[in-house]
Amino acid sequence: MGALKQFKLPDVGEGLTEGEILQWLVAVGDPVTVNQPLCEVETAKAAVELPSPWAGTVTALLHEAGETVDVGTPIITIDIGGEGGGGAAGEEPADVAEPTAGLIGGAAPGGRTAVLVGYGPRTTEARRRPRRSGADAAARATAPAPRAEPAPAHPPLLSTAPDATVKPVRHGGLEVGRQAEAHALGEAAAPSVGAPPGQGRLRPLAKPPVRKLAKDLGVDLTTLTGSGAGGLITRADVQAAASGAAVPVRAGEPVREQRIPIKGVRKHTAAAMVASAFTAPHVTEFLTVDVTRMMKLRTRLAARPELAGLKISPLLFVARALVLAVRRHPMVNSSWDEAAQEIVVKDYVNLGIAAATPRGLVVPTVKGADRLSLAELAGALTELTETARAGRTAPEDMSGGTITVTNVGVFGVDSGTPILNPGEAAILAFGAVREMPWVHKGKVKPRQVTQLALSFDHRIIDGELGSRFLADVGTLLSDPGTALAF
Amino acid sequence: MSLSSVTTEVVDPIPGAEAPHLPQQPDLVQLLTPEGERVEHPEYSLSISDDELRGLYRDLVLVRRWDVEATALQRQGELGIWASLLGQEAAQIGAGRALQPDDMAFPTYREHGVAWTRGVDPLDVISLFRGVDNGGWDPVATHFNLYTVVIGAQTLHATGYAMGVQRDGAETAVLAFLGDGATSQGEVNESMIWAASFSAPVVFFCQNNQYAISVPLERQSRVPLYQRAAGFGFPGVRVDGNDVLAVLAVTRAALAAAREGQGPTFIEAFTYRMGAHTTSDDPTRYRLASELEEWKLRDPIARLKVHLSRSGIADHHFFDSVERAADELATRIRSGTVEMPDPPATAMFDSVYAEQTPHLAQQRAAFVAYHESFEGGER
């Protein structure tokens, strides 16, 4: 038994991350020669035959035909006999840790990775060398800059390197850059201010446009503490420094900012808001309504025995009005299915209620809100909000919403422009109910007034539909008796 | 000439008159038919010794073997990419061997055969495709410029160089290589205008391999490419690009005319790219297999082999020795490639300018200092 070599799936087309083995052209036990086709592989770009880098005998096929394999994964083992066959890809012994394919730039659609022309995506983990200790680095920084080893005029292309099996570690520009960035991010948590500029770290972290801005404004980046991730100096930092607003943190003074890790509900909320804001073009419409009659109705209903013990809140009326208006305008209770290129109109209303909780914004949903009586809806809302405030909302209760109400009025504000819950076409905000001067029956009278704001996905809902829907909700609240007509 | 007749001619991808169902191509210069028969041409004659003929055959076989090995190395992950010359060997060897020692050639990124005729080591070309350097040869010493990847840009360099040697009074001709796709580039048209205006001693050698990556020629030109030269005011010649003898004769004549002060010539070497544009594409997605089969019958090496053996110029001993030489070359290319050391990271600062600039020197020093801030490693 001679030396076993494993051939790893190479990147055969500038930036591919994987390939499907269409068929094996050799079997275990077959002798193979150099460049003999081993298998046919189909990538995002082409179907190609992979030639053997070595002569020898096939001892194992590591993946079956039909399997999709990441670039860098060993696919075949070849016994090359007693001596090496002039190392090629996959030279490393089999015990080398499985490489991760396509680290640079990350995978892109179509199985490609954005890379420069050259070696394609990296197939090995970056080999990071630890930084020297601070003192060491400082000492080196103050010492006269050591002359860099002059580059050999030309690599000795034809000479046979004595130790040809040892492959040099790559230091392509891009990789070095990314390693450097990763290192810097890791290290830069320690603020640079305090340490003399130019020591310990070569350059302060800032993106090129920010560097340009700093240069234009005459701000020395080495004197700033970055407020961005990993100490990154942001545009705002530079502008603040330029305007003199920034008070540089001096040694001994407590740091006057708090850094809160973005995680959990905050992280989820941020992702949902970004996803929504940048996929669904929002429009918001406003309507101020006189809800005096609704408030009177509320008092009357609260006295009814079947509603005893239930919380009859303005939110309940808004939720009820919304459900009734949806019945007349089903299109607002829909979602945009980009993949299928379809608008999905729902025959049921899962009503999301945005709730402020100690953990952050949570949107539990009342499933089948359109089938609930007022009493049932009141019960569901109470239970829902209590569960949410206790932080016990189950994940399934937060999914599947079709339309949402957000009650900004509880915080005493009048209105807002709500952002759609991702996957929904409309969200209704309602503000505080205030006693306001209002023209009622030809005279200015104090009336209970609130403001409604409806944001909707303009891909699905045109201004006309949105306006009619909002007007219907408004009518139901200002004149609850019209509900009989719905 | 009506448009329809022009279109018919362009659509026909087959050179030579040997396909009876296809239109004749009377304009195609040919000295060796696909069947290996030596024919004469009224304007282009070639007197060539048996040694030279064997030498051309050797060139063609070795260059093809280099190309096949490099393609395999790319498939094995040893090269980032490879631009194959398969099928275009005769066009390149014929053009390269037409050059005088002092003539200067400006290649694209596919002229491996021309590099071979200029004495450039194959490994110095491969190092570029391995990403080790930007081409390892000395363009001044070899009279073969570094590869130009930007499509068509080298025609401007060539024209400028030609205007330079013209002012030096040197008896030097310049050979600018380009592909059929490059003829659609602004640079190529500009350079032809300049070359014509100044009667520069430059020959534009276009290898029409029928496809600009995936775009067939008839999508880019309504007329045969060689006819475009008339619009610029200099001669255009279409030569069978798979006939090494015809290419040699036509290119020699054009270079001689340039040296004598007769100005530029446009040569369209009518050929076919048998492989992919580069290893990154799949020609079966835009070409018909039948087309490829037709062109296999016009193989540049097979026809010369037939001619050599039929005329008794070479026997199997010679062919065997060439095969052995090709095997040795392939082995040397394989081991030389996989053993190629990576350049130091600082190499990228060293070849930007002929003389180092203070700004670049500063960047280099910062880069070195940065790397030294890690344990285990100045390099």
TrEMBL record, chain A:
<dbReference type="GO" id="GO:0005737">
    <property type="term" value="C:cytoplasm"/>
</dbReference>
<dbReference type="InterPro" id="IPR036625">
    <property type="entry name" value="E3-bd_dom_sf"/>
</dbReference>
<keyword id="KW-0670">Pyruvate</keyword>
<dbReference type="GO" id="GO:0016407">
    <property type="term" value="F:acetyltransferase activity"/>
</dbReference>
<feature type="compositionally biased region" description="Low complexity">
    <location>
        <begin position="135"/>
        <end position="146"/>
    </location>
</feature>
<dbReference type="Pfam" id="PF00198">
    <property type="entry name" value="2-oxoacid_dh"/>
</dbReference>
<keyword id="KW-0012">Acyltransferase</keyword>
<keyword id="KW-0808">Transferase</keyword>
<feature type="region of interest" description="Disordered">
    <location>
        <begin position="114"/>
        <end position="168"/>
    </location>
</feature>
<dbReference type="InterPro" id="IPR001078">
    <property type="entry name" value="2-oxoacid_DH_actylTfrase"/>
</dbReference>
<dbReference type="InterPro" id="IPR003016">
    <property type="entry name" value="2-oxoA_DH_lipoyl-BS"/>
</dbReference>
<dbReference type="Pfam" id="PF02817">
    <property type="entry name" value="E3_binding"/>
</dbReference>
<keyword id="KW-0450">Lipoyl</keyword>
<dbReference type="InterPro" id="IPR050743">
    <property type="entry name" value="2-oxoacid_DH_E2_comp"/>
</dbReference>
<dbReference type="GO" id="GO:0031405">
    <property type="term" value="F:lipoic acid binding"/>
</dbReference>
<comment type="similarity">
    <text>Belongs to the 2-oxoacid dehydrogenase family.</text>
</comment>
<dbReference type="InterPro" id="IPR023213">
    <property type="entry name" value="CAT-like_dom_sf"/>
</dbReference>
<dbReference type="InterPro" id="IPR000089">
    <property type="entry name" value="Biotin_lipoyl"/>
</dbReference>
<feature type="domain" description="Lipoyl-binding">
    <location>
        <begin position="4"/>
        <end position="79"/>
    </location>
</feature>
<dbReference type="Pfam" id="PF00364">
    <property type="entry name" value="Biotin_lipoyl"/>
</dbReference>
<dbReference type="InterPro" id="IPR011053">
    <property type="entry name" value="Single_hybrid_motif"/>
</dbReference>
<protein>
    <recommendedName>
        <fullName>Dihydrolipoamide acetyltransferase component of pyruvate dehydrogenase complex</fullName>
        <ecNumber>2.3.1.-</ecNumber>
    </recommendedName>
</protein>
UniProtKB/TrEMBL annotation, chain B:
<keyword id="KW-0786">Thiamine pyrophosphate</keyword>
<dbReference type="InterPro" id="IPR029061">
    <property type="entry name" value="THDP-binding"/>
</dbReference>
<dbReference type="Pfam" id="PF00676">
    <property type="entry name" value="E1_dh"/>
</dbReference>
<dbReference type="InterPro" id="IPR050771">
    <property type="entry name" value="Alpha-ketoacid_DH_E1_comp"/>
</dbReference>
<dbReference type="InterPro" id="IPR001017">
    <property type="entry name" value="DH_E1"/>
</dbReference>
<dbReference type="GO" id="GO:0009083">
    <property type="term" value="P:branched-chain amino acid catabolic process"/>
</dbReference>
<protein>
    <submittedName>
        <fullName>Pyruvate dehydrogenase E1 component alpha subunit</fullName>
    </submittedName>
</protein>
<keyword id="KW-0670">Pyruvate</keyword>
<feature type="domain" description="Dehydrogenase E1 component">
    <location>
        <begin position="61"/>
        <end position="326"/>
    </location>
</feature>
<keyword id="KW-0560">Oxidoreductase</keyword>
<dbReference type="InterPro" id="IPR017596">
    <property type="entry name" value="PdhA/BkdA"/>
</dbReference>
<feature type="region of interest" description="Disordered">
    <location>
        <begin position="1"/>
        <end position="22"/>
    </location>
</feature>
<dbReference type="GO" id="GO:0000287">
    <property type="term" value="F:magnesium ion binding"/>
</dbReference>
<dbReference type="GO" id="GO:0016624">
    <property type="term" value="F:oxidoreductase activity, acting on the aldehyde or oxo group of donors, disulfide as acceptor"/>
</dbReference>
